[in-house]
């Protein structure tokens, strides 16, 4: 049967929306958006491999990444709906893009927050694997709590320190609930160094796509601009005064952008079965 993803559902809306969290998250990562999105969507919040209640894939490396992508598609098929919308954050955005490219007929619209199509060069991927290997060693030798302190100290997450104390505490507890085995295993199959480069495939990703970033996160905002130049049907938005996680830093504005995108009419004209006849 393959990898099975644990998930929970919330919301009373008519649109199924699969939610894929980032590294160190779990299915509760978007719970604070329930009051903002719950009347419009039926959320399917997933635990990605090595997080929450989902086990690691049977394969490591690139094969494990592909196995995770296929597990997302399998989950959608099990839901018994014609198609779902898909929202992913950071690591979850990379998995979401892979799923949309793998089986586009299963998805309606795609929302990628602080995501990347991967690293273009083999050497870049090898260097990233080395970096993630050192991170995995830190987790194994010093434990999850010490790793979380290191993880939160990165400049990438500096703007999260402005969150209300109760939200910072909830975020930290969610991170500390991860296991060393789960985090190291996730780095060993879903890390950026193992993700296939999707840059050359973006032109065939014809789902309406929304790219969301924080303006303070210059690296991923630039990546989003480069992606937007390649995607056929794309909208993008950079939230001012936000960093890598605008869904946490500006939840009201974030929900407004998501709902506006989901509610915007989109009609794709069917291709001509025969070339149009010229009357000239």
Structure overview:
This protein has helices spanning about 35, 60-80, 90-100, 120-140, 145-150, 165-175, 180-190, 220-230, 245-250, 250-265; strands at about 5-10, 15-20, 40-45, 85-90, 105-115, 210-215, 235-240. By secondary structure, the protein is α/β, with parallel strands linked by helices. The protein has a single domain (about 5-265), classed as Rossmann fold (3-Layer(aba) Sandwich). Helix 8 links the parallel strand 6 (about 210-215) and strand 7 (about 235-240). Mean pLDDT is about 95; it is low at about 270-280.
Rg, alpha carbons: 19 Å
Strand content: 5-15%
Fourth CATH level, the homologous superfamily: Alpha/Beta hydrolase fold, catalytic domain
Question: Whole-Å distance between the termini?
Answer: 58 Å
CATH topology type: Rossmann fold
**Structural class by sheet pairing and helices:** alpha/beta
Mean pLDDT: 94
What is the second-level CATH architecture? 3-Layer(aba) Sandwich
Helical residues, percent: 40-55%
Sequence stretches where pLDDT stays below 50 over 5 or more residues: 271-280
**How many strand elements?**
7
CATH top level is Alpha Beta
- What global shape is seen? globular
